[in-house]
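WARN retry 2 of 3 for item q-0093 after timeout on previous attempt; input resubmitted unchanged.
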Amino acid sequence: MYRRATSPFGYVIDAHLGTIRAPCGVSTESYTLKNPILGFERDGKPVFKNPKKKCTLGEQHGMLVRVREKNWFTSLFHTTHTISLFSMAFDILKELYKQPHAYVGTGDGVEKQINIQDAIFHPRKKSSVWLNCRHRGQKVVIKSTSDPYMKLRYILDGTIHYLLERCCPTYVPKLHFVSLMDNGDVAICSEQLQIPSLYEWISKTLIETRPRRFWNRALWFMMRNVCWAIQRMQKRAKFTHRDCHANNVYYDMENKRILFIDFDWSSICVNGKVVSEPRFLYDTTRNDYANNRSLDCCILFRSIVDILMLRNNELNGAFDPFLEHVYFPLFRRYEEESGRVLKRDCAYSKAAIQLYKINTADKKMNGHFGHGYGMAHTKKEYEYKMGWQQWDCMTPESILAFLNKRRHLIF
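OK item q-0093 returned
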């Protein structure tokens, strides 16, 4: 009988985690995250795609650093911590060459054999996705890439998925394997979900499967159940998704099943080591960059406002009770706390001044404060930039308490 390997990688990868460096500040000379790391030399030095494009950094103030007479976000630059993450991924990649490779076959019963007879192929710029594949009798998704930099990113993605699955298996799709293919590509094989994304659930599934009188209760339960899931992942795995929008969360109302996908922005702490995939919107120079307990709720619940409003208008105000008594009051509370805290912290924090200015009409300290201004200035990056710090009213614990206080207004 088939027995699953020690891990989806085919061997125990925990020893590699010890090579990750602690978060630290940027050096006076550094490369940007947009300059891909292609590999590492024998002495451990990273090989950048453009080795001559090294930046000289000046004074750091708040979230910004001076580069070439302009202010750049500090999060744009590599540190010894971010480089050590890619170094760990490169070491895992070398080990994968020694493991059995995955391959495409006419069946799906052999280890790492993939049947793509009924698959749907989606090409991307530097990678590809195969839906409706079969592996071990199960429907799976295959993500693969031949790009050297993307290979390292895929391995980091797979590592986070695997570590989270060990702690919270009920909240992630099953990870079958992370492997090299016969053609040298790195592939991630994971369960293909058969339940709707949260976006699809709000826009279609809820309305089609429940009577109108239950819709607002179902929205209240959805918010509560998602907050529970996020809270448990934070406690059990010290996990932050960091890209937790409505298309990356899947929701099964009938079985109260919640699953999170796409961990290429995520972070997880294991034995004091932070495993993440560095992104330009997250300042990895801060020790607490991987421990923001409000970020996921801010991103997720902000991401559903457009579809909530659209469907509410189409359904002649069917969601009005939920919007009036729960959703909008929650975000008014968030806006009030952020304005109050940033105004207070401006006395000693340059970052607080920068965030406060983002949220004013004229980007000045004496301007009127409002999240609407911030979203107009920063577009989709708003919650990511506000995630520079934690907002107590938007942690899952705080939202759960808020929901309980307003339960009588919905039921």
